[in-house]
Structure formats: structure tokens, C-alpha cells
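We emphasize that the prediction below concerns an isolated chain of 657 residues; any contacts that depend on oligomerization or on bound cofactors are therefore not represented. The input was used exactly as deposited, without trimming of termini.
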Amino acid sequence: MVWRLVVLMCLLICDDLSRAQDYSDDAPPPPPREQENCDGIFVSYTFISREKEYPRLKNASAQSWAFKAMATVLNAGSFELKSWKIFIGFQHDEILVSAGGAVVMDGDDMPTSVGNGTFLSGFPQSDLKTSIVTAGDINQIEVRIPITGTQFGVKPPDVPMPKTISLANDGYKCPKPTLKKTSMSVCCTRILKVKVKPKSTKFLPRQYGDLSFVYDIMQAYEGNYMAQVTIENNHPLGRLDHWNLTWEWMRGEFINSMRGAYTHKIDATDCIYGAAGQYYQGLDFSHVMNCQKNPIIGDLPSEKAKDEKVGYIPYCCRNGSLLPTIMDRTKSKAAFQLQVYKIPPDMNRTALYPPEKWKIVGVLNPSYNCGPPVRVDPTEYPDETGLLQVASSAIASWQVSCNITRPKTKTSRCCVSYSAFYNDSVVPCNTCACGCDHEETDTDNCNPNIPQMLLPSEALLVPFANRTAKARAWARLKHIDIPNPMPCGDNCGVSINWHINSDYRTGWTARITLFNWEEINFEDWFVAVEMKKAFLGYENIYSFNGTVLKDINNTLFFQGLPGLNWLMGEVNGSDPKTDPRVPGKQQSVISFRKKLTPGIKIKQGDGFPTKLYFNGEECSLPTEFPTGDGIRNPPVNLVPLILLTLVTFMLITHHFH
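Result of the prediction step, given as a C-alpha cell string:
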């Protein structure tokens, strides 16, 4: 009996050991050494797997692969990280399909192309607390971002890793990441330049942006709240006309009503057939303004500014115009209010979340890239009557900062042509300066990749579609080859001609002409001209208002005189059946002195702009200048001329002998 008990005890002990061994095998692996040694923010990217997608191609560089990866952001330091942002340097033409717990900072909807890298920010967990104040709660100090997407051109056994990863928050520096075969990691540390006394605030300070939004919660109730959106234009050359704003509701919210703005679509269908309709059984959705996940919001016309139902909001109702401060500071701001309804589980009055993925566009204005909403100190509003020295605070505030992005080649919305008194040919706007993906552009019958043909000056007054005959005739007159097919048009809504009008010993003059090929009118237009070499010589402009902006890259700022500040749209000719359409036009002469610009060479191109902006949009400039010897004229063959001269000289000499 004794030996049987001993055997039984041995079996039980062995079973316990086996179970313990199985448990230890299933435990998560220990963190990497780099993470254990990090005193800051540890960012990592791990490639998990991939599968070949359809279509199956023999060309390896064109084959697409579905991949899975995991990015992590861990606060391993002693300071809370607010509104975390990371950069992943994708480099294999990746298309991002999903990123759990994060949003793309430029506001693009997924799937989105990220082949040049992308910035991700946290949602809904945007802040990472420290291990110290959470007793090491991994759910509060770390965020894991499962990534799925498509990549091209890297076949096994090679691994499609990004070029780099880093933390994008201000105040941190990141060294070169450590790269292994399927993983990449970096420890980013705080930049401690000087020790400053910390401010008594629990939110991030407000950031500068070329354009900024503030989303203020003014009143909060159970199930809904009132918010105010304030838009501020901070860039001296930034501008928006007829702006349209869009964002994305992330938690099923919908707009019940608005003041100071409106949604382009008034429709409650998404609410009635969605989660909101199931919860709000007794709500009359016929009075709800908008239930779209991505509403498009526009400004009201000025006639609605004092409307009792939708007006009486400071800075509202300006027909979508947002001017730079140097034109009119009072018109550099816009605002509107909205009532937002929520759905479970966010019915508590303190469950407040701003919309994400903010985008704003104008008719012919700069492109803005907007970051995520960042929680800031509540906005304070002074007493409306001005009689009391008291201020009321918003319940909660978020800021969205946007910056102007320079247009890529062939994506501008305005263009410039050059001409001069010493050359009778005009260098027109670049081919496809504003893109050739328009429906009216047939690239089968025109070439988008060759330079424009030189034109006579009168051709600038007619639309591009009516210039073909003039361009052909001018080419024959100037003995220039005519390409087949001919170049495509510039497709720009506004074009500007810069003409060198005169050049004399003590000065020179230029003439600027604005052409509006759109059907809309531009009120309070402006042109900003950056002159690298001629700026100091600026003397006067005679039909526009001119301002010297020394602090902005030697820029001259022009706008219409009072009463003449409209650039009218394109209209029909005298006889619409035979005459081409006529653009709206504004023109002025500009004078310059040479005293402060010694050595300036007008005929070598020093009198032309370095950059030119119309209503804040950077216009496409020609790649060459008119020159005094006739631009792009074919070279003259001097051999026959020399032979003819010699023969003539010999005949004359023989005659006298």
C-alpha cells in the first residue's frame, strides 16, 4: 500500500509541474531589452504576416500583398503623454486599410495611400498616463494599433518594413530606430532645454497653425450638447472663399440644429434606419438637420446675419469668406453653433468627444492639412454687454491646427504667363498646370507632357479652346515645329500675365493682368508677389493698392481699390454663337527703381516673380523667361551666310582688279 501512495503522489506532482510548464509557455514573452532600458516613449512596429492578393501577376514589382502589422506606443517615462502622434515611414506604395485605435492625421478616409509615410494620432485613447500614477496598468500607459493594408513590390523572403518610425509630439527627440528583420523600435526622450515652473493646467497649450479650429462645448445635457466652432485664419497670405468644412462623427452623433452655418444636405435617413432611430423612438426626425457621418458644412450669406432663427452669432454669415489679417482682421474669423445629439453609451453629460478628420476647402484657395483635435484649456468668453469685467468658460475645448501645403506639380489652381516688350512671343501657362484629369481634357488628342507653344499676346484674351489656330499660325510665322498632338491646356480657373513693360537707366516697369476664367466672381481678391531680386526697387502700383511685406520673403501684396475689389467671372462674348467667352479682367502697371538693386538684369529674368499667389493659392510659374534674343527660336545656320559673304567679297575684289 505504501508504494502505491508514493506512486500516486509522484503522478500528482508531475501533473502539477506539467501544468505549470504549460502556463509558462503561454505567458507573453518578456519585453525587448530596448523597451526595458527606455526612459521616455517607446514606439515599435512589428510586421506580422502577408498574403498575395488578386490579381496574381508575374511582374513582382506590380504584385499586391495584403499585410498585417502591429504598432505600439508605450509611455515608459515619468511624464504623461498627451495627444500622442507617431510617424510611420511607409515606403512600398502601401495602402492603409485599417488602423485600430488611431486615425490618419491628414483627415483622409481609409483606405488611403501612405506610400510616402503617414502620421497617426490616437482615438479614442489619445493620452498615455505614466506607470507611476496607474500602478503599472498597461491599458493606460500603452496603446496597440493593429494595422492592415496593401503593399506592392516586395516578395518573400524580403520583409516590407517601413523606412523609419518616430514620435511626432513636440518636445521629444527620437534617434535612429533599431531595425530587426520583422520589427523596428525607437525610444524617444523629452527635450529638457531649461527647467520651467509647470503651469497649473491639465491640458496642452494651444498651438499655432496657419488655420485653426476651436470646438467649444458651451452647454451639456443628458444625451446632447451645444457646441460652438470658431475658425481663425492666422497666415498673412492664407484665405478661404465659399469654404466648406467636413469632419467625421466617430460615436454615432448627429446634428439636430445649427446657427450661423448650414449642412449641404438636410436628411435624417441615416438616423431613422440607424442606431439613433432605435434609441430615440419618440423624436420627430423631420426637424433634424443632418445625420451623415461626414456632414459638409457651409457658411451662410450675409443676409442671414440677423436672422432670428439661424443668425445672431458673432463672426457668422460672410458667405464663406475668410480673409488674411493684413486685409481685414475682423473678417479673418468665422463661427457657428450646433446642437449635437449622442447615442449610448455616451448619454452622460460628461461623455464628450469632438468629431475627427477635419477638412476645409475653398473655391480657389490654399490646401490645408489638419491635425487631430487636441484637448486644450476651456475657452473664456467675455461679457457680451461689455459692462461687467467677467468671463464665462466653455465646459470643454478642443483645438484643430491646420497648415498650408504647397501644391504638387500639376495640382495648382492658378497659373502665370510671362511676356516682355523685347520679345513678341508670350510664354504661356505650363501644360496641365492645374491638372489634366478634368472631364473636358481628352489626353488622347493632346499631349500632357510637352511644353506649351509660344503665343501672340492677343491669344491671352481668349479661352484655351480658342487658341489652337492662333498657336499654329504663330508657330509657322516663327518657324517653330508644330507638335502632333499639340499640348493640353493649363485648365486653370485664374491666370495671371506678368509683362515687362519697359527698362531704362534708372528704373523699369511691369504690368500685371488678372484673368478670371471661372463663372464665379472673386470679391476682395488679392495677389502676393515674391520678388527675390527686384523687391527693394518697388516704387508704386497705380490701379491697385500695394503693400510691402518685408517679413514675408520679400513679398509685394496687391489688392483692388475700394469699389474696384471685384474680379468678375467669365461671360459670353458679344455674339455667343461666334465670339469666344470673355474672362473677367483687372490690370495695373507697377514701377520699380534701380537705385537699391544695382546689377539687376531685367532681360535675363530678374524682373519676373519668384513666387506668385492668388487668394492664397500658390500659382504655377513658367519654367523659362522671354529673352531679348527670341525665346526658343530655332538656331540660325551660319555656314550658308558665311559662304555667301565670302563669295560676294571675292566678286567685288575681282571687279575692281
